[in-house]
Design goal:
16% strand; Spore Coat Polysaccharide Biosynthesis Protein SpsA, Chain A; 329 residues; single chain; 51% helix; eight-stranded mixed beta sheet; elongated; alpha/beta; 2 domains
C-alpha cells in the first residue's frame, strides 16, 4: 500500500527539515511505499531551497513550485491533485499538527472503514480573542451556510484515494477548504487531537475576516433569503406605520412632523439598502470569479522523480479537465 504525504510551504524554512524527518519516521513502520509532496506556495524565505536539498537526498520527495502565492487552500488542492497514494496524509508543515498523528488516524481508519479521518482540536489554541473569534465564526457559519462544518477542525487528515479524487474534481475558484471537505461526502470520522502553538499564525485578522466573508458568500443561499425576509419585514413595518399615521391624521387630526425622525429614517433605510447591495455585490463578484475558466494555480516547475511504467498503470490519474483546473499543463 502506498501513502502520499502532502504539505504546503510558506515561511517554513525553520520547520521543513524536521517535518520531513518526522513524517517519514511516522510513516515507515506502517507503509512500504511512501511519497511526499511539498507545495511551495510562493514562500518568500528559503523554504524552496531547503525542500530541494531534502529532495536531492531522498527521491521520494516531490516539490511543486507554484509561480506565486495563491493561498493555503489552493496550494493544498494542487498538492492533493499530484498525490498517487492509496491513502493520502495531509497536514501543515509548521509542526503544530504533529506527523505522529498518522498512527492514530490510520488505526481509526482501519477500525471504522471510513474514507476520511480528520483531526479536531480538544481545546482551540491561541489567546482569548482567537478562541472567541473562532467560536463566533463557526457559530455564524453553521447558522447561515447550507452545509455545516465541524468546529475546531484542523488541516491534518488521512484520506482514501477515492475521496481525494472526488475532492480535487471540485472546480470552485472561490472556496474555503473546510467546506469542500464536507461537500465531497464519503464516510468521515473525527479524532480528538492537541494542536500545538509553536509559532505566530500567518493568518492575520484581515485574512480571517476575508475567509469568513468568502465562506458565507460562496456556500450559503440562506444569506440571500435572510436579506429577502429582512427587506419584507421592514417593508411590512413601514407599511403598517404609514397606515397607522394616516388613520391618526384622518380620524384624530394628529399629524407627524420633525426633521430628526425624517433624517433617522433616511439614514436607516439608506444603510440597509447599502448593506443589501453590498451582500449582492459580493455574490456577483463570486459569480464573476467562478465564470472565468483560467488555471486554478500555475506551476513554475515540478521536481519529481520519473515514475516507472508499472506504477503509472497502477494508479488512476486525474482526468485532463481536472489537471487543467489546477494548472498542471
Amino acid at each position: 500500500m502506498m501513502l502520499s504525504i502532502v504539505a504546503t510551504l510558506f515561511k517554513s524554512e525553520s520547520t521543513v527539515d524536521e517535518f520531513v524527518r518526522r513524517s517519514f519516521a511516522s510513516a515507515e513502520p506502517l507503509f512500504t511505499d511512501i511519497e511526499m509532496i511539498l507545495v511551495n506556495d510562493g514562500s518568500p524565505d528559503d523554504s524552496l531551497q531547503r525542500a530541494l536539498r531534502l529532495r536531492a537526498g531522498d527521491p521520494r520527495i516531490t516539490v511543486v513550485d507554484l509561480s506565486r502565492n495563491y493561498g493555503h487552500h489552493k496550494a493544498i488542492m494542487t498538492g492533493l491533485a499530484h498525490a498517487h497514494g492509496d491513502l493520502v496524509f495531509l497536514l501543515d508543515s509548521d509542526l503544530e499538527e504533529q506527523p505522529e498523528y498518522l498512527a492514530q488516524f490510520y488505526q481509526k481508519l482501519e477500525e471504522t472503514g471510513a474514507d476520511v479521518v480528520f483531526g479536531v482540536q480538544k481545546s482551540r489554541k491561541g489567546g482569548l480573542f482567537e478562541k472567541v473569534s473562532g467560536h463566533l465564526f463557526f457559530w455564524a457559519a453553521n447558522s447561515i451556510c447550507d452545509q455545516k462544518m465541524p468546529p475546531n477542525t484542523i488541516t491534518a487528515r488521512l484520506m482514501t484515494h477515492d475521496y481525494v479524487r472526488a475532492l480535487v474534481r471540485h472546480r470552485h475558484r472561490e472556496f474555503v477548504l473546510g467546506h469542500l471537505f464536507v461537500m465531497a461526502g464519503f464516510v468521515q470520522q473525527p479524532v480528538s487531537v492537541v494542536k500545538l502553538s509553536t509559532s505566530p499564525s500567518t493568518y492575520t485578522l484581515a485574512n480571517r475576516f476575508d475567509m469568513a466573508i468568502r465562506y458565507m458568500t460562496t456556500t450559503s443561499t440562506r444569506l440571500l433569503y435572510l436579506v429577502l425576509f429582512t427587506g419584507l419585514t421592514i417593508a411590512g413595518i413601514a407599511g403598517a406605520a404609514i397606515v397607522y399615521f394616516l388613520l391618526q391624521y384622518l380620524f384624530a387630526g394628529i399629524h407627524v412632523d420633525g426633521w430628526t425622525s425624517t433624517i433617522m429614517s433616511v439614514w436607516f433605510f439608506g444603510g440597509l439598502i447599502t448593506l443589501i447591495l453590498g451582500i449582492l455585490g459580493i455574490y456577483i463578484a463570486n459569480i464573476l470569479s467562478e465564470s472565468k475558466r483560467g488555471p486554478y494555480t500555475t506551476i513554475r516547475r515540478l521536481y519529481r522523480t520519473n515514475l516507472g511504467a508499472d506504477f503509472r498503470k497502477s494508479v488512476s490519474r486525474p482526468k485532463d479537465g481536472d489537471e487543467h483546473v489546477y494548472g498542471h499543463r
